[in-house]
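Good morning C.,

I know you're traveling, so I'll keep this short. The sequence:
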Amino acid sequence: MHIVVEGQDATGKDTQAALLKEYLESKGQKVTLYAESGTGSDNPFTQTIAKLNYQTDQDIDHRTRVLLYLINRYDQWRRLAEPALKNNEVVITTRNWFSTLIYEGYASGVSRNLIIKLHHEVMPERYFKPDKIVIMTLSDEDRAKRLATQHRESEVWKSKPSDFQNKLNSAYLRVAKDYNIPTLDAAGSVDEVQTKLRALFGL
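The tokens, ready to paste straight into the viewer:
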């Protein structure tokens, strides 16, 4: 089973995905969890690509970023997800290709058709059919408050001004509608959101 937890920065994707992993493991499931962005990976190759994408003191074109994200996306899928899925295990990923479509396409002006075409050329068909997917959402006000407490101004996306963050939020809602993806309000306590997430997934 492949589960995708998507959503904008500060919606609690990583926290909720980690709790979901613990829950499924308590039920006897073997679970592989990773971030498609490559953040948190202990693989040197993945780390290198992630650092290029997230450091602010650089000059990387947005088309180049699309390719860099795709490199990590494909490589981790090949190394981590495919073997686990073949063994009938659970794979949970935070983010998927919709993140690139939104951040680089809707928000940064790269051709959305190009992003779609590149991903369908590179990623296998199984990748585009997760068994369960959700987009975590927050109001602009709540998200701004959370970002302010994280003190991660060195990250390229989190350092963007509020109008850019609001643009991302609108794009996520549009993608949720266009691709018929359920959304989940990430407001509330961590446990409350986790309960709602399990209910949404029927777990």
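Safe travels,
E.
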